[in-house]
Amino acid sequence: MKINLHFSPGTVDELYLSDRTVVVIDVLRATSSIITAMGNGAQEVIPVGSIEFAMKISGNLFGGRTLLAGERNTIQIEGFNLGNSPLEFTPETVKDKSVVIYTTNGTKALVKTRFSEQTIVCAFLNLQASAEYLANTGKDIEIICAGRNNQFSLEDNVCAGLLIKLLQSLGSYSISDSASAAILLANNYGADISGMMQNSEHGKLLLENGFAADIDYCSHVSVSQIVPIFISNIIKA
Ligand code: MLT
Questions:
Q1: How much distance in Å is there from the Cα of 232 to the middle of ligand 1?
Q2: How far apart (Å, rounded) are the C-alpha atoms in residues 86 and 77?
Q3: What is the mean pLDDT of residues 120-145?
């Protein structure tokens, strides 16, 4: 089996992903928020690629139990029920709800994988559960780091490196050069994930905007057993 890694969504064509097993990582904060929402009882999460589409489908679909979540430049979008802080997706708020979510990079990366066979939503929070699920599929794996504006982001690639190391402990995988590079990053930064994120470009922006608690929350490794899976435009656990 083979593992390939895309440092950002900008380097991958959506048709290349057709019928493949894909992983999307946006540690800060979209995939961490989605894992949290599913873990706290959301019925489903619908990631979308534009604010207009989010508003369009949140109306009367899903039996009136829809929450609209999303951010622009990390801040909650006006008129939306929630922003993109994982700490907002509490059981009281999301249980039995359908969450339509738009984020600047993470949900766009997810939408790009809509022709995949299945796309796993991964972050530090569900690293071990994701690795076990993926190893059990016996499939080649394409990992996409959501990054920032189609550029590299450190926290997503460190997370990818740790995921690849776990996969190699669970099965026999050959890995691409990009996957080897991510392992080096994981070896370098894996011992202090919170510190690494505070010093990353996106981490600094979150700190400036008052989201220090989110960085702390998103740095916890393998604390969730939830493996959200994006198939047919909807994420279910
Ligand atoms: C994104 O998709 O760009 C992020 O999740 C932004 C954020 O921190 O809310």
A1: 23
A2: 15
A3: 98
